[in-house]
Amino acid sequence: MIVAEQLTKRFGDKTAVSNVSFTVQPGKVTGFLGPNGAGKSTTMRMIVGLDRPTSGTVTVGGQSYAHLRSPLTEVGVLLDAKAVHTGRSARNHLRAMAATHGIGRARVDEVIELTGIQSVAGKRAGKFSLGMGQRLGIAAALLGDPRTLILDEPVNGLDPEGVRWVRQFVRHLAAEGRTVLLSSHLMSEMAQTADHVIVLGRGQVLADAELSELVRAWTTNNVVVRSPRLSELAAALAGPDVTVTASAPGVAEVSGVTAASVGDLAASLGIPVHELTSRTGSLEDAYLALTGDAVEYTSKEIA
Ligand SMILES: Nc1ncnc2c1ncn2[C@@H]1O[C@H](COP(=O)(O)OP(=O)(O)OP(=O)(O)O)[C@@H](O)[C@H]1O
């Protein structure tokens, strides 16, 4: 479990993280989201003692990182997978890390197998492809068999097979009861991976909720209807809670009603319907609605 209480970090007059409190629960994958510059990396760095909070506290398993007697066995961290520029083989890199933490060679072989890098373990880690480097970074994070894992952008730059592997792997780690905090800018991927999400914007917590709850609260469901007599149907649908927005010739998006009631109404009026689709909001829709005011750099909407 990770507990942050009123965590604040300033760099000169820039406040990167402002009064942030949250709890990351075990047994779940918690997604850490937010626009560029929102403060995610700074928060992760404070969790693992790489940045010192200006004020506030953060603990892992009830202890601050600096007070953990054996950090590697408590928290596994992947902050920058490309940071491995080593002439050593992947196996020797992991063995060297293990040796400095009193971890045996058998565990090195275990994490090599767990992350599927057996065939390249004898190669120089500095020559690894991005995907293999990411797996090696995850292997290193797992060396101490930690209860908590912090992974910053673990799927960044991975091919679809690698992305799927990370997704299944982190879900497996959470199912084992571990605490997993994961950042990513890929919303569709996060939607498939996380159970819970914490969203930061301008250094503050914008949302801290189960993923499904967040999507429900920040999106509206609508119904796409296609009909050659759309204007008649739209007129019949009109009501105080119903919004009909034309999206293409003969097509409208209707909110405030179910697909069933649109279909029933059309049938009762004898209006032909060529398409009737219920659309639920996505994590991306929710995220964009939530962070709209918190992005530092906005781009012009493409019509
Ligand atoms: N060492 C530093 N010195 C000065 N400012 C910093 C430092 N580290 C981060 N910042 C600033 O703090 C803010 C938060 O940065 P941070 O890297 O934590 O954001 P992030 O959410 O991880 O962004 P990204 O998604 O782009 O990685 C940014 O405005 C950044 O420029």
From TrEMBL:
Which keywords, in A-to-Z order, does the entry hold? ATP-binding, Nucleotide-binding, Transport
The record's section on Pfam families has:
ABC_tran
Q: Which GO terms describe its molecular function?
A: ATP binding
Presence of the UniProt keyword Protein biosynthesis in the record: no
Per its UniProt record, what SMART domains does this chain match?
Answer: AAA
Asked if Zinc is a keyword of the record, the answer is no
Locate the ABC transporter domain: which residues? 2-227
Organism superkingdom: Bacteria
Q: Which residues cross the membrane?
A: none
Q: Which family does it belong to?
A: Belongs to the ABC transporter superfamily.
What protein is this chain from?
ABC transporter ATP-binding protein
Organism annotation: Microbacterium arthrosphaerae
The organism's lineage is:
Bacteria, Bacillati, Actinomycetota, Actinomycetes, Micrococcales
